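Every protein is a chain of amino acids, and every chain bends into a shape of its own. The fold becomes a row of whole numbers, each drawn from a learned catalogue of backbone shapes. The protein below has been through that process, and both of its lines are reproduced in full.
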Amino acid sequence: MRAAFINRTGPPEVIVVGDLPDPVPGPREVLVRVRASAVNPIDTSIRSGAVAMPLPTPFVVGCDLAGEVVAVGDGVAALRPGMRVWGSNQGLLGRQGTCAELAAVDERWLYPTPAGISDVDAAAAALVSITAHLGLVREAEVRPGETVFVNGGSGGVGSAVVQIAKALGARVIATAGTPAKRDAVARFGADVVLDYRDRDLADQVRAAAPTGVDVFWETQREPDFDRAVSMLADRGRIVVMAGRDARPPFPVGPFYVKGCRLLGFVMFKADAATQAAAAADINRWLQSGRLRVPVDRLLPLARTAEAHAVQEAATIARSTALAGKLVIEP
């Protein structure tokens, strides 16, 4: 099979596209013909070595996938050849990745693709939608009628947070940095869309939510906790899921006086049952049209290194050139 893989960690240029032996599904594993594989910031961090994990050699990059089952190993209960599936949680914790023509995946991490949903849309939604679901449902316990503020609502995770918060019955205030991106966030369903670069952003949020926001979701790597806490309602929650090296100041006094909570998590540490429950909701929202993660561009397998470079520029250098997910089509 053709695959995008590395033999050592390093910059995007260490990615090699070439032939590897076809994987053979072991017990409880499913062999998937990959039709689409989305690129995520965690992929670039593992490839670069910034996030240290056990890596087989050669190591196929990529977390997300969508495609069709071509074979199953012993003990597989629910999946059969010919079924369309999507999933995530690959390419980390010692598991081989998904930027390849074939991938052998434990059935626990695969979910049926709803009828009418393309492989590109399913792969684009995978990691970011599970992340958004875990943060809103398990961590923040968002309830109907609450107000959720999303700092960065146009990207992969941010767009999923906006749409899932709306599906949960919340009112959503979100930010984006350009008029085109703000228009996109409004189409995702945000009730109020603001420019995150405005100096009076906190005042605008307080005008839109006079008693404060119930949940502040931070997608950026360097949170401004003084501003965030000033926006929170009593017993508000802040969700953080980025910025491994960030060490921002924190306003302890205003935070505890309001009785607030700070919630941090990473998606891939959630167990399979929790992620499967999230996937069931995601499938329902995908099929009903309430969830669509934007795709910036499709690239062939041969351009996987380019995709990593673009993703890295958006994540670390905060380039504004990316407006949605990068999806590889093997």
